């Protein structure tokens, strides 16, 4: 039987942006052909590429293509977060405001598109080591390592403004989307101090709840003295104009 001709490895790659499932199938198919030809070295190379693609896909959210909760948990409990010193690490929990109303009014297909676009907007402008992960439902987590508290607040508020100013009406007339953010910053200055990512996540969740209670479309964070909001929540006199 004549050998099946197989293109070189670098020629087999589909163009950028090809779906991961297509790449996975391609590597598996090429590996099978190479194995029948006895080219075990190149077959192994393609099988390893298929494995790496499958693993990477398991760490991505299928709807938004951002990282998923599994990746977030692995990162927070991995060596990357252990014994970090100054300037610290920030974790922001982000929730879409009144998202149920978006689904009820415009339908779930529009809701899915909103989630995808919010994920893209949240990832814009993040520092190189930072990432966005879908935390669950309409909630996302931003993890920003090696950042001081002031810069973390600026990054979170810039994301809030970016979402609020996005031209949502081009998707559906009358559509508007805002987010609320709870931002917890922590410095692990002592070399022997144990990092507690769950505690930091709980702090971020508590602050997110405060941002919701303060009127939504806000960033809640804790400075040296007390919890703060951006924009600043109006008191009763200000809201009535008296």
TrEMBL record:
Give the GO biological process terms: cell adhesion involved in single-species biofilm formation; negative regulation of bacterial-type flagellum-dependent cell motility
Location of the GGDEF domain: 87-224
What InterPro entries does its record include? Diguanylate_Cyclase, GGDEF_dom, Nucleotide_cyclase, Rev_trsase/Diguanyl_cyclase
Membrane-crossing ranges are none
SMART domains with a match to the protein in the record: GGDEF
CDD domains per the UniProt record, alphabetical: GGDEF
**One term under GO cellular component:** plasma membrane
> What are the Acidic residues biased-composition ranges?
1-12
Citing just one GO molecular function, the answer is:
diguanylate cyclase activity
Spell out the residue ranges making up region: Disordered: 1-21
Name of the featured protein: Diguanylate cyclase (GGDEF)-like protein
Originating organism = Amycolatopsis umgeniensis
């Amino acid at each position: 039987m004549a050998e099946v001709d197989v293109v070189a490895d670098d020629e087999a790659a589909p163009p950028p942006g090809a779906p991961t499932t297509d790449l996975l199938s391609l590597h598996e198919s090429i590996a099978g052909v190479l194995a029948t030809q006895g080219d075990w070295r190149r077959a192994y190379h393609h099988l390893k590429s298929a494995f790496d693609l499958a693993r990477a896909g398991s760490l991505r959210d299928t709807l938004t293509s951002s990282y998923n909760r599994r990746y977030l948990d692995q990162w927070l409990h991995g060596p990357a977060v252990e014994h970090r010193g100054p300037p610290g690490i920030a974790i922001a929990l982000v929730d879409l405001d009144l998202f149920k109303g978006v689904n009820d009014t415009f339908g779930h297909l529009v809701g899915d598109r909103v989630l995808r676009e919010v994920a893209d907007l949240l990832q814009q402008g993040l520092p190189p080591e930072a990432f966005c992960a879908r935390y669950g439902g309409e909630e996302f987590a931003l993890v920003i390592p090696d950042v001081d508290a002031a810069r973390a607040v600026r990054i979170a508020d810039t994301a809030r403004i970016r979402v609020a100013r996005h031209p949502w009406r081009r998707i559906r007339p009358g559509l508007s989307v805002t987010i609320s953010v709870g931002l917890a910053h922590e410095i692990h200055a002592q070399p022997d101090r144990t990092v507690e990512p769950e505690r930091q996540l709980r702090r971020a969740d508590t602050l997110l709840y405060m941002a919701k209670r303060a009127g939504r479309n806000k960033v809640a964070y804790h400075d040296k003295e007390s919890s703060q909001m951006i924009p600043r929540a109006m008191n009763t006199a200000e809201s009535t104009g008296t």
